[in-house]
Design goal:
about 200 residues; 3 helices; alpha+beta; single chain; about 35% helix; six-stranded antiparallel β-sheet; two-stranded antiparallel sheet
Length: about 200
């Protein structure tokens, strides 16, 4: 009786009689893997193209919206500068120009300019307005304000909150020096001089 448990098993790729199979080894799954790789590569390329084109489209739309808002702002400024020079847009069918009616003069020539510090502030823990952002360039940056400073006074006005700072800056004259009392993050007090800028 033969004992099959002790018989050696043939190695993969070899026939049981000790001989080798002739010809190349066939791998049927290799073609599927290659096809999957190509499909994955093409889908990745397609997704990347869509994302790039979407980004370009969004950027173009954003630039157009910003440009249109700037154009509208410039048209408003031009309309304020020359209120009576606008003529009617069309002409009648006879070819003669339409009569121009002068527009009434505005009640106020231009709104008064408002002062600005070029900083963003929130209520501080106790008293004052804490600076959370300083616009560069800007009057606050020029004066030496940094993020984390707490404004305690603006001119002769005591600042207890960010709303107090807004009111005090709104009452200031643009271009006129104002003294500030500042508590720095390190604990030191300092007097600074700022010249509020103009906001139209």
């Amino acid at each position: 009786m033969e004992q099959t448990a002790l018989r050696p098993k043939p190695m993969p790729g070899r026939e049981p009689g000790g001989g080798e199979r002739g010809g190349p080894v066939r791998r049927p799954h290799a073609a599927r893997r290659r096809g999957r790789r190509i499909t994955t590569l093409l889908l990745g390329f397609f997704a990347a193209t869509v994302l790039v084109l979407a980004g370009v489209g969004l950027g173009t739309v954003g630039a157009t919206v910003i440009g249109m808002s700037k154009l509208a702002e410039m048209q408003k400024l031009a309309a304020r500068a020359a209120p009576g020079t606008k003529s009617a847009p069309g002409t009648p069918a006879s070819g003669t120009p339409a009569p121009v009616t002068p527009s009434p003069a505005p009640a106020a020539s231009a709104p008064p300019a408002r002062a600005a510090l070029g900083v963003e502030a929130v209520d501080a823990g106790k008293a004052g307005a804490e600076i959370v952002a300083v616009h560069v360039p800007g009057p606050g940056y020029t004066a030496g304000l940094v993020r984390g400073d707490v404004l305690l006074t603006f001119g002769a006005t005591r600042i207890d909150s960010a709303n107090d700072l807004v009111r005090a800056v709104g009452k200031a004259e643009p271009g006129k020096e104002v003294k500030l009392t500042v508590l720095h993050r390190g604990g030191g007090y300092q007097q600074l001089t700022v010249v509020p800028g103009v906001v139209l």
